[in-house]
Amino acid sequence: MNIRSLTRGDGVVIGAAVLLFIASFLDFYSVPGGDLPSVWDTDVYRLALPAVFLMGFIAAGLLIAARFQPEGRKVGGLTLTAWGTVLAVAAAWNGLWSLIATPPLADLAAGCILGFLATLALAGVAVAGGKVPALAGPLVPEPRPVTAQPYGGQPGTGYGYPGGQQPQGYGATPQPAPPYGGTPQDSSGAGFPAAEFTPFWFAVPVARPLFAEDGSPTPIAELAPGTWYLAVDQRGPSTLIAQTQDGRRGVLNDTSGIQRG
Question: What CATH code would you report for 200-260?
Answer without folding.
Answer: 2.30.30
